Amino acid sequence: MEQFEKDGHKIIFGDAIEALKKIPNGTIDLIFIDPPYNIGKNFSGLKDKWVSDNDYLNWCYTWIDLCIDKLKSNGSMYIMTATQFMPFFDIYSEKAFHFI
Predict the structure, then answer these.
(1) Domain interval for residue 50
(2) Three-state SS annotation for 53-96
(3) Based on the structure, what is the number of domains in the chain?
């Protein structure tokens, strides 16, 4: 895991779940997450595909829950994903977020 800091701002580059576990709850203003999309793309020999869509979604729900815990009450989160999974993220996250 790598951290880059400047002027009081921090970017953490690493495994999202492991990194998020180390951050105190309620301390993040903004989370921008661009996870693997589970569409089978090959990244230098690493294929972006889980065994099942349910396995992928359960992994996503884990980091979404961690992100919710880490955000300040007025924090924002941006999630990039493939169009076929966005409705699942939306429905799962609506308990905690106001969507724009």
Answers:
(1) 16-93
(2) HHHHHHHHHHHHHHHHHHEEEEEEEEECCCCCCHHHHHHHHCCC
(3) 1
Task: Look up residue 100 and give its two tokens.
Answer: 């724009």
Phi then psi for residue 9, to 5 deg, are: -105, 150
pLDDT digits (tens, 9 = 90+) for 15-54: 889 999 999 999 999 999 999 999 988 888 888 999 999 9
CA 4 from centroid of its chain's CA atoms? 18
Tell whether 71 is covered by a domain: yes
Question: Which residue's entry shows tokens 């951290």?
Answer: 3
Residues 6+ apart with CB under 8 A from 5: 11
Residue 10 lies in a domain: no
**Do 61 and 71 touch, CB atoms closer than 8 A?**
no
3 within domain boundaries: no
